[in-house]
Amino acid sequence: MSKVRIGNIISLYELRNSEKKDYPVVGINKDKTFMPTVANLEGVDTSKYKVVSKGVFVFSGMQTGRDICIRIGLYSDDTPALVSPAYTTFTIDTQKVLPEYFFMFFNREESDRYGWFISDSSVRANLDWPRFLDIEIPLPSLSEQQKVVNVWKALREIKEQNEAKAAPLMQLCQSYIQELKHKYPAEEIGPYIEEVTRTNKENLYKIDDVRGVSNEKVMRDYKGSLTGRDLSKFLVIKEGEFVFNKRTNAGLGLCLVKNRPYIFTEDYEAFRVLDKEALLPDYLYLFFANKDFDRYILYNSWGSAVVFFHIDDMKRVKIPLPPPDVQIAIVNIYKCANEAKQIAAEADRLSREVCPALLQHIIHN
Questions:
Q1: What is the pTM of this model?
Q2: What sign does the CA torsion over 44, 48, 51, 57 have?
Q3: Fewer C-beta within 10 Å: the chain N or C terminus?
Q4: Is the distance from CB of 25 to CB of 41 less than 8 angstroms?
């Protein structure tokens, strides 16, 4: 397959914001997506900023620390945006290369590694613009390019559609929970739960079954060292039970265990709901996932350098307790939102894994 030098297929795109339009200011993250700028723009003259519109590429050769990547983005929104003058902006010859194909080629780990290899310096490496222009990329026919682009677009569309569904549904859930505080009296959850102290004393569960929880209220792989740890003392938490880290310096790490039992270190405490008709575990979880709850936790934790929140403190937590049918309705909305989030995440994963494989296929066949 023939190759083409990048410098032969692109043109610089230099459109300044001379009219001082109030467009959003964006930058590129290491995932090659656009994000709102984190810079303080107070008093900044944005007339020097560059205007990007749909189909324009934005490039930065700067690489820092572990972020080994070519920072390049293809702007796809209908509304224009502004980027810092430090970025290089360009368009591509669409008679030879599809913009999405070009972006997909650089949206791969292989391209990032090559970009790092040819960059200068170490801690703050830089891929100079002339060196970027000298990179050669394989150039299949437009029809072959279109095949992989169609797959990529389909997956990105699934991702974006489901993200668009999930966000308002999640917001609706939290809005309902806020409204419930004004409709129903708050009750302590103590009478509705009981502590779980079940341990792995028979060593039925092994290192692969050890988990931790994040402050985002989801279960994750355990990150600490388990060398020399006595797994028989770990808590066994079954499906439908809650587990939380009693250390609360940055909020409460908590999750509702799903699917099968896991084990957790002595840093954790756990409980289960006694009457799942009076109090749905998923409804209780939604209350815990609310940001107000983390503020409550930090205010009611005990300690100084290290602060704690124990099971007795958990039992004193008060929540509005609507009838079961109201709890079920709110939980169903949450489940729909969560399903949309999972579909979006899976589509995003596939677009990052399957499409590079398709690129390899058309490049080498």
A1: 0.73
A2: negative
A3: C
A4: yes
